[in-house]
Amino acid sequence: MRPARPRNMKTVTARQSTPSRQREYGIALLVVIMLGAILVPFAAEFAYQITLEAITANNVTDQLAIDNAIESQYQIVLARLRFDGKGNETDTYEDGWNDDELRSRGDEESGVQLESRIFDEQGKLNLHALAEGSPERQEVWKARLVELIKRYRRDTKWDAAGRADEIADAISRWVRGEASRGAIPTAKTADDRKMLVLEELNFVDEIFEKERLLVDRREGEEVAPGLHRFVTVYGTGKVNLNTAHKVVLQAIFATDPEIAENIIQRREGGEIDEDEDEPADEEEEEGDDGGNPFTDPNQINDVDGVTQPLLLQNKVIPGEDFEVKSNVFAIRIVAQTEGTRREELFVVRRIPGSDPSGEIEGFQHLLCQERIDPLEDGADEITP
Asked: Which member of 14, 137, 211, 252 has the lowest number of beta carbons within 10 Å of its beta carbon?
Protein backbone atom coordinates (compact mmCIF):
# COMPACT_ATOMS: atom_id res chain seq x y z
CA MET A 1 0.00 0.00 0.00
CA ARG A 2 1.40 3.40 -1.10
CA PRO A 3 1.96 5.93 1.72
CA ALA A 4 -0.24 9.03 1.78
CA ARG A 5 1.32 12.27 0.36
CA PRO A 6 1.59 15.08 2.87
CA ARG A 7 -0.98 17.80 2.33
CA ASN A 8 1.51 20.63 2.41
CA MET A 9 3.94 19.19 -0.18
CA LYS A 10 2.89 21.68 -2.90
CA THR A 11 3.38 24.53 -0.56
CA VAL A 12 6.80 23.35 0.38
CA THR A 13 7.76 22.93 -3.27
CA ALA A 14 6.54 26.44 -4.15
CA ARG A 15 8.46 27.99 -1.32
CA GLN A 16 11.60 26.23 -2.39
CA SER A 17 11.27 27.28 -6.09
CA THR A 18 10.80 31.03 -5.49
CA PRO A 19 14.44 31.71 -4.49
CA SER A 20 15.58 29.66 -7.46
CA ARG A 21 13.60 31.78 -9.88
CA GLN A 22 14.88 34.96 -8.26
CA ARG A 23 18.40 33.74 -8.71
CA GLU A 24 17.65 33.07 -12.37
CA TYR A 25 16.19 36.56 -12.81
CA GLY A 26 19.19 38.05 -11.05
CA ILE A 27 21.61 36.15 -13.26
CA ALA A 28 19.68 37.18 -16.37
CA LEU A 29 19.71 40.83 -15.25
CA LEU A 30 23.43 40.62 -14.52
CA VAL A 31 24.05 39.17 -17.98
CA VAL A 32 22.01 41.97 -19.55
CA ILE A 33 23.96 44.59 -17.60
CA MET A 34 27.27 43.02 -18.58
CA LEU A 35 26.24 42.84 -22.23
CA GLY A 36 25.13 46.47 -22.07
CA ALA A 37 28.43 47.47 -20.50
CA ILE A 38 30.21 45.69 -23.33
CA LEU A 39 27.98 46.93 -26.16
CA VAL A 40 27.64 50.59 -25.10
CA PRO A 41 31.28 51.47 -25.88
CA PHE A 42 30.96 49.72 -29.21
CA ALA A 43 27.81 51.69 -29.95
CA ALA A 44 29.47 54.93 -28.87
CA GLU A 45 32.52 54.14 -30.99
CA PHE A 46 30.28 53.34 -33.94
CA ALA A 47 28.40 56.64 -33.51
CA TYR A 48 31.71 58.50 -33.21
CA GLN A 49 33.03 56.85 -36.36
CA ILE A 50 29.87 57.78 -38.24
CA THR A 51 30.19 61.39 -37.06
CA LEU A 52 33.89 61.47 -37.92
CA GLU A 53 33.27 60.04 -41.38
CA ALA A 54 30.55 62.64 -41.97
CA ILE A 55 32.94 65.44 -40.95
CA THR A 56 35.67 63.96 -43.13
CA ALA A 57 33.28 63.73 -46.07
CA ASN A 58 32.32 67.38 -45.58
CA ASN A 59 35.99 68.38 -45.34
CA VAL A 60 36.80 66.49 -48.52
CA THR A 61 33.91 68.21 -50.25
CA ASP A 62 35.13 71.58 -48.97
CA GLN A 63 38.69 70.82 -50.03
CA LEU A 64 37.57 69.95 -53.55
CA ALA A 65 35.51 73.13 -53.71
CA ILE A 66 38.47 75.16 -52.42
CA ASP A 67 40.85 73.52 -54.92
CA ASN A 68 38.57 74.42 -57.79
CA ALA A 69 37.97 77.94 -56.48
CA ILE A 70 41.71 78.67 -56.06
CA GLU A 71 42.50 77.33 -59.52
CA SER A 72 39.68 79.39 -60.99
CA GLN A 73 40.88 82.57 -59.27
CA TYR A 74 44.46 81.86 -60.30
CA GLN A 75 43.47 81.50 -63.96
CA ILE A 76 41.46 84.73 -63.79
CA VAL A 77 44.52 86.60 -62.44
CA LEU A 78 46.73 85.12 -65.17
CA ALA A 79 44.21 86.19 -67.79
CA ARG A 80 44.30 89.74 -66.40
CA LEU A 81 48.10 89.75 -66.44
CA ARG A 82 48.13 88.38 -69.98
CA PHE A 83 45.68 91.02 -71.21
CA ASP A 84 47.54 93.80 -69.38
CA GLY A 85 50.84 92.77 -70.95
CA LYS A 86 49.61 93.43 -74.48
CA GLY A 87 51.01 96.73 -75.64
CA ASN A 88 51.39 98.08 -72.11
CA GLU A 89 54.60 100.03 -71.57
CA THR A 90 54.20 100.37 -67.79
CA ASP A 91 52.97 98.40 -64.82
CA THR A 92 51.30 100.09 -61.88
CA TYR A 93 48.90 99.09 -59.12
CA GLU A 94 46.25 101.01 -61.07
CA ASP A 95 46.32 98.37 -63.82
CA GLY A 96 43.51 95.89 -64.41
CA TRP A 97 45.35 93.02 -62.74
CA ASN A 98 44.87 94.82 -59.43
CA ASP A 99 41.17 95.65 -59.75
CA ASP A 100 39.18 95.62 -56.53
CA GLU A 101 36.79 93.04 -57.98
CA LEU A 102 39.61 90.49 -57.83
CA ARG A 103 40.33 91.21 -54.20
CA SER A 104 37.26 89.56 -52.73
CA ARG A 105 34.43 87.52 -54.18
CA GLY A 106 32.22 84.64 -53.13
CA ASP A 107 30.73 81.61 -54.86
CA GLU A 108 27.19 81.05 -53.55
CA GLU A 109 26.90 77.60 -55.10
CA SER A 110 30.04 76.14 -53.48
CA GLY A 111 30.02 78.40 -50.42
CA VAL A 112 33.67 79.38 -50.95
CA GLN A 113 34.83 82.90 -50.12
CA LEU A 114 37.90 84.08 -52.04
CA GLU A 115 40.37 86.84 -51.33
CA SER A 116 43.46 87.57 -53.38
CA ARG A 117 46.36 90.02 -53.41
CA ILE A 118 48.87 90.61 -56.18
CA PHE A 119 52.34 91.97 -55.46
CA ASP A 120 54.71 93.27 -58.09
CA GLU A 121 57.95 91.53 -57.20
CA GLN A 122 59.88 94.07 -59.25
CA GLY A 123 58.68 96.83 -56.99
CA LYS A 124 60.84 95.38 -54.23
CA LEU A 125 64.54 95.35 -53.40
CA ASN A 126 66.05 92.24 -54.98
CA LEU A 127 68.42 90.43 -52.62
CA HIS A 128 70.40 88.99 -55.51
CA ALA A 129 71.74 92.49 -56.12
CA LEU A 130 73.89 91.81 -53.04
CA ALA A 131 75.83 89.23 -55.04
CA GLU A 132 75.72 90.55 -58.60
CA GLY A 133 77.61 93.27 -60.40
CA SER A 134 80.80 94.90 -59.22
CA PRO A 135 81.80 94.80 -55.54
CA GLU A 136 81.10 98.52 -55.36
CA ARG A 137 77.51 98.06 -56.59
CA GLN A 138 77.01 95.15 -54.21
CA GLU A 139 77.97 97.41 -51.33
CA VAL A 140 75.53 100.06 -52.57
CA TRP A 141 72.65 97.59 -52.43
CA LYS A 142 73.79 96.30 -49.06
CA ALA A 143 73.67 99.84 -47.67
CA ARG A 144 70.15 100.17 -49.09
CA LEU A 145 69.13 96.92 -47.39
CA VAL A 146 70.45 98.27 -44.09
CA GLU A 147 68.33 101.39 -44.50
CA LEU A 148 65.28 99.32 -45.41
CA ILE A 149 65.63 97.12 -42.30
CA LYS A 150 65.90 100.25 -40.17
CA ARG A 151 62.66 101.62 -41.59
CA TYR A 152 60.22 98.86 -42.42
CA ARG A 153 59.07 98.24 -38.83
CA ARG A 154 59.83 101.63 -37.39
CA ASP A 155 57.69 102.62 -34.40
CA THR A 156 56.65 99.03 -33.66
CA LYS A 157 57.95 96.89 -30.80
CA TRP A 158 59.47 94.48 -33.34
CA ASP A 159 61.74 97.12 -34.87
CA ALA A 160 65.06 95.51 -35.85
CA ALA A 161 66.88 98.80 -36.54
CA GLY A 162 69.42 98.16 -33.79
CA ARG A 163 70.72 95.08 -35.62
CA ALA A 164 70.23 96.30 -39.20
CA ASP A 165 73.92 96.25 -40.13
CA GLU A 166 74.44 92.80 -38.64
CA ILE A 167 71.34 91.35 -40.33
CA ALA A 168 72.17 92.87 -43.71
CA ASP A 169 75.70 91.49 -43.49
CA ALA A 170 74.39 88.00 -42.68
CA ILE A 171 71.95 88.14 -45.60
CA SER A 172 74.68 89.34 -47.93
CA ARG A 173 76.99 86.46 -47.00
CA TRP A 174 74.14 83.97 -47.40
CA VAL A 175 73.20 85.23 -50.87
CA ARG A 176 76.86 85.15 -51.94
CA GLY A 177 77.22 81.58 -50.70
CA GLU A 178 79.78 82.56 -48.07
CA ALA A 179 77.74 81.61 -44.99
CA SER A 180 77.68 78.17 -43.40
CA ARG A 181 74.46 76.47 -44.48
CA GLY A 182 74.65 73.52 -42.09
CA ALA A 183 72.26 70.84 -43.31
CA ILE A 184 70.63 73.21 -45.82
CA PRO A 185 71.63 72.09 -49.34
CA THR A 186 73.11 74.59 -51.75
CA ALA A 187 70.80 75.51 -54.60
CA LYS A 188 71.67 74.21 -58.06
CA THR A 189 70.56 76.67 -60.70
CA ALA A 190 71.60 77.59 -64.22
CA ASP A 191 72.76 81.03 -63.08
CA ASP A 192 74.40 79.66 -59.89
CA ARG A 193 72.15 81.55 -57.49
CA LYS A 194 72.59 80.59 -53.85
CA MET A 195 69.14 81.64 -52.66
CA LEU A 196 65.86 80.45 -54.15
CA VAL A 197 63.11 81.45 -51.70
CA LEU A 198 62.74 84.13 -49.04
CA GLU A 199 62.07 81.51 -46.36
CA GLU A 200 65.81 80.80 -46.36
CA LEU A 201 66.18 84.02 -44.35
CA ASN A 202 64.93 82.08 -41.31
CA PHE A 203 68.26 80.19 -41.40
CA VAL A 204 70.36 83.33 -41.82
CA ASP A 205 69.87 84.64 -38.29
CA GLU A 206 67.78 83.41 -35.36
CA ILE A 207 66.15 86.84 -35.02
CA PHE A 208 64.13 86.18 -38.18
CA GLU A 209 62.24 83.30 -36.62
CA LYS A 210 62.24 84.68 -33.10
CA GLU A 211 60.72 88.03 -34.04
CA ARG A 212 59.02 86.79 -37.23
CA LEU A 213 60.73 89.50 -39.24
CA LEU A 214 59.89 87.92 -42.57
CA VAL A 215 56.10 87.72 -42.18
CA ASP A 216 53.39 90.10 -40.95
CA ARG A 217 53.02 90.16 -37.18
CA ARG A 218 50.07 91.18 -35.04
CA GLU A 219 49.43 91.27 -31.32
CA GLY A 220 46.14 92.87 -30.38
CA GLU A 221 45.87 96.21 -32.11
CA GLU A 222 49.56 96.43 -32.95
CA VAL A 223 50.64 95.20 -36.36
CA ALA A 224 53.96 95.20 -38.20
CA PRO A 225 54.64 94.31 -41.85
CA GLY A 226 56.77 91.38 -42.87
CA LEU A 227 59.99 91.86 -44.81
CA HIS A 228 58.42 89.86 -47.65
CA ARG A 229 56.54 93.01 -48.64
CA PHE A 230 59.76 94.87 -49.43
CA VAL A 231 62.39 92.36 -50.60
CA THR A 232 62.38 89.58 -53.17
CA VAL A 233 64.55 86.98 -54.89
CA TYR A 234 62.71 87.22 -58.22
CA GLY A 235 62.95 89.68 -61.09
CA THR A 236 65.61 91.71 -62.83
CA GLY A 237 67.15 93.42 -59.81
CA LYS A 238 65.83 96.81 -60.89
CA VAL A 239 63.07 98.55 -58.92
CA ASN A 240 59.86 99.54 -60.68
CA LEU A 241 59.33 103.25 -60.01
CA ASN A 242 55.58 102.81 -60.49
CA THR A 243 55.03 100.10 -57.85
CA ALA A 244 57.84 100.48 -55.31
CA HIS A 245 56.70 100.92 -51.70
CA LYS A 246 57.71 104.16 -50.01
CA VAL A 247 60.04 102.25 -47.66
CA VAL A 248 61.93 100.82 -50.66
CA LEU A 249 62.29 104.27 -52.22
CA GLN A 250 63.42 105.74 -48.90
CA ALA A 251 66.09 103.05 -48.68
CA ILE A 252 67.40 104.04 -52.11
CA PHE A 253 67.32 107.77 -51.39
CA ALA A 254 68.63 107.38 -47.85
CA THR A 255 70.13 110.87 -47.59
CA ASP A 256 66.92 112.55 -48.74
CA PRO A 257 64.01 110.22 -47.86
CA GLU A 258 61.42 112.90 -48.73
CA ILE A 259 62.21 112.16 -52.38
CA ALA A 260 60.22 108.93 -51.94
CA GLU A 261 57.07 110.92 -51.24
CA ASN A 262 57.72 113.10 -54.27
CA ILE A 263 58.09 110.03 -56.50
CA ILE A 264 54.80 108.60 -55.24
CA GLN A 265 53.04 111.94 -55.71
CA ARG A 266 54.39 112.16 -59.25
CA ARG A 267 53.27 108.65 -60.30
CA GLU A 268 49.84 109.09 -58.74
CA GLY A 269 49.10 112.13 -60.87
CA GLY A 270 51.37 114.90 -59.72
CA GLU A 271 53.20 117.29 -61.96
CA ILE A 272 55.16 115.95 -64.93
CA ASP A 273 57.55 118.82 -65.46
CA GLU A 274 58.18 121.90 -63.39
CA ASP A 275 58.40 123.98 -66.58
CA GLU A 276 54.86 123.21 -67.75
CA ASP A 277 52.31 125.99 -67.51
CA GLU A 278 49.36 123.92 -66.28
CA PRO A 279 48.77 124.08 -62.55
CA ALA A 280 49.51 120.96 -60.50
CA ASP A 281 45.86 120.43 -59.48
CA GLU A 282 44.80 120.19 -63.15
CA GLU A 283 47.59 117.67 -63.75
CA GLU A 284 46.38 115.62 -60.82
CA GLU A 285 42.83 115.70 -62.16
CA GLU A 286 44.07 114.29 -65.47
CA GLY A 287 45.66 111.40 -63.64
CA ASP A 288 42.59 110.42 -61.60
CA ASP A 289 41.91 107.30 -63.67
CA GLY A 290 45.36 105.78 -63.94
CA GLY A 291 47.73 108.20 -62.30
CA ASN A 292 50.74 109.52 -64.09
CA PRO A 293 53.12 106.55 -64.29
CA PHE A 294 56.75 106.84 -65.22
CA THR A 295 57.34 105.66 -68.79
CA ASP A 296 61.14 105.87 -68.64
CA PRO A 297 63.54 105.44 -65.71
CA ASN A 298 65.26 108.70 -66.61
CA GLN A 299 62.06 110.58 -65.79
CA ILE A 300 63.27 110.34 -62.20
CA ASN A 301 65.17 113.51 -63.07
CA ASP A 302 61.83 115.33 -63.44
CA VAL A 303 60.76 114.60 -59.86
CA ASP A 304 60.73 117.57 -57.53
CA GLY A 305 63.94 117.68 -55.50
CA VAL A 306 65.94 115.29 -57.67
CA THR A 307 69.22 116.75 -58.85
CA GLN A 308 72.39 115.26 -60.27
CA PRO A 309 74.33 115.90 -57.04
CA LEU A 310 71.56 114.11 -55.11
CA LEU A 311 71.69 111.11 -57.46
CA LEU A 312 75.45 110.97 -57.08
CA GLN A 313 75.24 111.27 -53.32
CA ASN A 314 72.86 108.30 -53.16
CA LYS A 315 74.78 106.45 -55.89
CA VAL A 316 71.64 106.18 -58.00
CA ILE A 317 72.05 105.26 -61.67
CA PRO A 318 68.52 105.53 -63.13
CA GLY A 319 69.06 103.10 -66.01
CA GLU A 320 70.64 100.47 -63.73
CA ASP A 321 68.51 100.92 -60.60
CA PHE A 322 65.03 101.54 -61.99
CA GLU A 323 62.52 100.27 -64.52
CA VAL A 324 58.90 101.14 -65.28
CA LYS A 325 57.48 97.77 -66.37
CA SER A 326 57.30 94.45 -64.53
CA ASN A 327 56.87 90.83 -65.49
CA VAL A 328 57.20 89.00 -62.16
CA PHE A 329 54.24 88.87 -59.78
CA ALA A 330 53.38 87.13 -56.51
CA ILE A 331 49.75 86.05 -56.14
CA ARG A 332 48.32 85.26 -52.69
CA ILE A 333 44.90 83.55 -52.76
CA VAL A 334 42.84 82.71 -49.67
CA ALA A 335 39.86 80.37 -50.02
CA GLN A 336 37.63 79.39 -47.14
CA THR A 337 34.31 77.78 -46.28
CA GLU A 338 32.62 77.62 -42.90
CA GLY A 339 34.88 74.74 -41.85
CA THR A 340 37.99 74.85 -44.02
CA ARG A 341 40.57 77.46 -45.00
CA ARG A 342 43.63 77.39 -47.23
CA GLU A 343 46.04 80.02 -48.53
CA GLU A 344 48.26 79.57 -51.57
CA LEU A 345 51.16 81.64 -52.87
CA PHE A 346 52.08 81.63 -56.55
CA VAL A 347 54.95 83.46 -58.23
CA VAL A 348 54.87 83.79 -62.01
CA ARG A 349 56.97 85.46 -64.66
CA ARG A 350 55.18 86.91 -67.66
CA ILE A 351 57.04 86.02 -70.88
CA PRO A 352 56.76 88.81 -73.48
CA GLY A 353 56.43 87.93 -77.13
CA SER A 354 58.76 89.05 -79.89
CA ASP A 355 56.37 91.91 -80.65
CA PRO A 356 56.37 94.30 -77.67
CA SER A 357 52.88 95.50 -78.58
CA GLY A 358 51.52 91.99 -79.21
CA GLU A 359 50.38 89.05 -77.14
CA ILE A 360 52.66 87.64 -74.47
CA GLU A 361 53.97 84.13 -75.01
CA GLY A 362 52.79 82.78 -71.66
CA PHE A 363 53.95 82.37 -68.08
CA GLN A 364 56.81 80.72 -66.28
CA HIS A 365 55.61 79.36 -62.94
CA LEU A 366 58.35 80.04 -60.41
CA LEU A 367 56.71 79.02 -57.13
CA CYS A 368 53.58 77.42 -55.71
CA GLN A 369 53.33 76.77 -51.97
CA GLU A 370 50.72 76.61 -49.25
CA ARG A 371 51.05 79.38 -46.68
CA ILE A 372 50.14 79.52 -43.00
CA ASP A 373 51.17 83.13 -42.36
CA PRO A 374 48.25 85.50 -43.01
CA LEU A 375 48.51 88.91 -44.63
CA GLU A 376 47.55 91.16 -41.73
CA ASP A 377 45.17 94.01 -42.43
CA GLY A 378 46.95 97.31 -41.95
CA ALA A 379 50.47 95.91 -42.36
CA ASP A 380 50.86 97.53 -45.77
CA GLU A 381 49.80 100.88 -44.32
CA ILE A 382 52.94 101.30 -42.20
CA THR A 383 54.48 104.59 -43.29
CA PRO A 384 57.74 105.43 -41.48
From this structure: 14
